[in-house]
Amino acid sequence: MYSIIVVPPPTTEDERNRTQLRLAPGERLTFGRSAHDNDLPITHDGVSRRAGEITAQGAFWILSNLSREQTYVVENPEGAGEHVKVAPGRLDAPIPFEFSRIVLPAAGDLLALEVWAPRHDYLSGSGGLDGATTAPAFSVDRTKRYFAVLAALCEPRLRGTPHAPLPTVDQVAERLRPSWPAASRTAVQWNIDYLAVKLRLKPGPESADTGPRLNGKKESLVSLALRFDLVREDDLVVLAAPSGRVTR
């Protein structure tokens, strides 16, 4: 059973039908500039002759950086900028993301290898200790308008662009208008302020000190929502919900 799928950087001949290399648990794949010494040659002058090695480890994978000078960055495209840095010479760095992008700096270019780890192990069954149910870390109601506002804020980064600029308040209102005809700048801003309090990014009005508004409120909300999976790609369906499905 294959546990890791590696998609090399595209070439001009391979834009539409990109090769996929599959690794079973325990298998290794080396990559670098040398076509003779690597399983995956990357023909770029800025890539080391022996650049790195990917090893499948069952439900996750590890990356070795075999270069002498370049730090590699492994991005989580679904994680609002979440990433792991693998320093030159670092061996067997564990990568926890289900979908990852290894970014190789190469003489002014940034080359990306995509790595999928579709097989993950999860605890099964509902058996557990008796007693009171653990309180949820974050309580969100996916039928409420504030959640639709949060989904609209997260949408650009959930669509696969981890560093995309966040939509403005006016753009969020326009995005929500098909399902919420009365959406306005004021209403969207109210929901953003409400989310900041609900998700404990700032205190409620009864206890808040007077002073400037929270800087980077939208960025903080999106970062929190994506890091803790409060909004997933499947949740974007609320943006196309028929009128009346999403409530205040």
Write a brief caption for the model.
It comes from Streptomyces purpurascens. This protein is α+β, with helices and mostly antiparallel strands.
* Alpha plus pi helix count: 4
Global structural class: alpha+beta
Task: Give the helix proportion (percent range).
Answer: 10-25%
Mean pLDDT: 83
Q: What's the order of the H and E elements?
A: EEEEEEEEEEEHHHH
Keywords, separated by commas or semicolons:
single chain, 248 residues, alpha+beta, 6-stranded antiparallel beta sheet, 5-stranded mixed beta sheet, 4 helices, 19% helix, globular, FHA domain-containing protein
Folded structure, characterized:
InterPro entries: SMAD_FHA_dom_sf (IPR008984). This is FHA domain-containing protein. 19% of the residues lie in helices and 21% in strands. By secondary structure, it is α+β, with helices and mostly antiparallel strands. Strands 2-1-11-10-7-8 form a six-stranded antiparallel β-sheet, with no helix packed on it. A hairpin with a 7-residue loop joins strand 7 and strand 8 (83-86). The longest helix is centred in the middle third of the chain and has 14 residues, at 145-158. The protein starts with a strand and ends in a 21-residue tail after the last helix.
